[in-house]
Amino acid sequence: MPSSPPPHEPKPPGSGRPSFSDTFSAHPAHPQRGTRPGRRVWTTLLSAGAVTAVCALTVSLAGQIDLSTDEGRSERTAAVAKPSASAPSSAPPASAAPSPRTADDTPRQPRPRTPGKPAAAQPPARDGAAGTDGGGPGAGADRGRADGGAPPAAAPPPRTGDGGGGSGGGTPPRAAPRPKPAARPATRPPAVKPKPKPPAPRGTRITGVASGRCLDVAGGRVTDGAKVVLNDCTGTSGRRWEFRPDGTVRTGGYCMDVAWGSTADGALVQIARCSGNPAQTFVLSTQNDLVNPQANKCVDAKDFGTTKGTPIQIWGCGGATNQKWRTR
Question: For bias kind Low complexity, which ranges apply (predicted)?
């Protein structure tokens, strides 16, 4: 018989390398990290359980929801609204309240009748119109009022073309007459604007005391070098003269001038372009003498003439009437 091994005896310290049993007893085994469920795992399991419970509750509630159609609802509403035929009405028909209307209680519009054809048979009245207990049209309406609903809609009035429900031979309705357009106001003729008056001619007439005629240009043509003569005073622009501050006497843009600037007796008077020459200076004195200061002579009707077309010249002032002039 083999002998049992000798009991293990602890080695004294410092006697060599420690044994496995000594190391295991000094450091007990611990589970590795991650082998036990942590806080995150428990949170995940609880969340999954809560979601599962909510889904199960939703499915149970969805099974109790009424998914019936509108027709089914209308039938149930009509069944609840209609009173039983065997139950007597506690109130008289006349004072009963109308029943609530449903989709089937809508009154139908009357169909138009064709002239010449017999009227078609009318459809049987429904419970809301004629009543089911044989009480006539008023009974059904009174029963509807008794139930607390709205009264049935009134039937539309008969058309004019149907003759009010007669034999169909009525005349069609006439179209309303169109309103007449408003009369347009009479067009007023355009106002005639008055013609503007021609401007008054500038200047004044120079009239001879002896002849009573006015100074004018020969032929009425206001041109350079035209001779000054006696003419009838008709008021034309060629017979008006302007006395300017510079001493010139002008008409039509030209100046009265002594021909060639002469100072001798008998030198003719004409009109010429204004140049500032002393031969174009004339002064009407207080004695009605029209004097050229350069020659110191008076404007004179030649040979004491008084007829139309008499030439005008300068001559020594003698106070004769053929040398006197007025402005007007």
Answer: 83-101, 118-130
Per residue in 126-162, pLDDT (tens digit) is 544 444 444 444 444 445 454 554 555 555 555 554 4
If you search the block for the tokens 């149907």, which residue do you land on? 162
Q: Which residues contact 144 (CB under 8 A, 6 or more apart)?
A: 96, 97, 98, 99, 101, 128, 151, 152
- Asked, for residue 236, whether it belongs to a domain, the answer is yes
Query: pTM for the complete prediction?
Result: 0.42
The distance from CA 40 to its chain's CA centroid, rounded to whole angstroms, is 72
Residue 231 in any domain: the answer is yes
Q: Which CATH number covers residue 233? A: 2.80.10.50
How many separate domains does the chain show?
Answer: 1
5: tokens are: 């091994």
Q: Domain range for residue 270?
A: 206-327
